TrEMBL record:
GO terms for cellular component: plasma membrane. It is found in: Cell membrane. Residues 91-340 form the G-protein coupled receptors family 1 profile domain. It is a multi-pass membrane protein. Its main location: membrane. Keywords: Cell membrane, G-protein coupled receptor, Membrane, Olfaction, Receptor, Sensory transduction, Transducer, Transmembrane, Transmembrane helix. The keyword Metal-binding does not apply. Odorant receptor. This is Olfactory receptor. One of its GO terms (molecular function) is olfactory receptor activity. InterPro entries: GPCR_Rhodpsn, GPCR_Rhodpsn_7TM, Olfact_rcpt. PANTHER family: OLFACTORY RECEPTOR (PTHR26453).
Amino acid sequence: VCQEYYVLNVFFPVLKVCYLIINSSVVILLPWECCHLIQKILPYISTIVGSMEEYNTSSTDFTFMGLFDRKETSGLLFAIISTIFVTALMANGVMIFLIQTDLRLHTPMYFLLSHLSLMDMMYISTIVPKMLVDYLLDQRTISFVGCTAQHFLYLTLVGAEFFLLGLMAYDRYVAICNPLRYPVLMSRRVCWMIIAGSWFGGSLDGFLLTPITMSFPFCNSREINHFFCEAPAVLKLACADTALYETVMYVCCVLMLLIPFSVVLASYARILTTVHRMSSVEGRKKAFATCSSHVTVVSLFYGAAMYTYMLPHSYHTPAQDKVLSVFYTILTPMLNPLIYSLRNKDVTGALKRALGRFKAPQRGSRGVF
């Protein structure tokens, strides 16, 4: 009985998520050998996934309460979120383009920043498009599979960003405290290890928590008082006792926040000590300018997440959870590239050079005519 319960309620949801992810986007990030193997097994996975609905008793749709529950403000809110979504995609896309095309930005810091922008684009695309389409079609439902996939992608991406932001502080520590050894300590291999470690930590969180969260039996009321499938909101619909699991999940989230945040604190403690010993005023200004953007992004992202996940539920209401979730799932992906570009002379210089290259051919073509 236990084995049957695990297969039907834990293994099948994870398998569905794996199939959806492999079949849509992640396959392009893997080496071609893995892609060849995955393409071979996809038909078999598809057959299993197709038969899941007839066995899974928890496969009925969920309904989001959402953000657009007030008709008098729903249109304005839709326009604002649509603008933020488009701006976030464009800003992060431009950031990745500049880092890839400008040779002056081919440094470890900007290499990590380009992956942060990629995570932000994937992060906001996991939640916002579904919400906007639901508003246009006047529907608020999401299937069990869709909720499982969204929950898994959200946990994976937010966890990966937590770890990446923490490890980016190490990059700033090496650049300021050990500048002569920077090319060795932040080599291409080390940068790829940081990226791989961030993705591994995030995906581990997703694979551990998603199967358990979605395996609970849900009551007849399937209205999620949220705008996406976030674990605390989904668990409120469970008919079983979730106290022990919520405690485990709380400890897991605290560790995921505190471990990278401890790296940030330790790195910047050493940085402040080094900067304080600098005799050059110009060197101090350059050091603070280099770190200020990262500190701002870390404060915004970690601050909102700590309030949501580390404070007990009795200290915040569902309405406050929605506001905080909007802040770090919708606003932060837009603010990150803007903070790094507006406060960074290297990025603004790269943007001016890119615009100059774009205008030059236009002037030449006008001269021909």
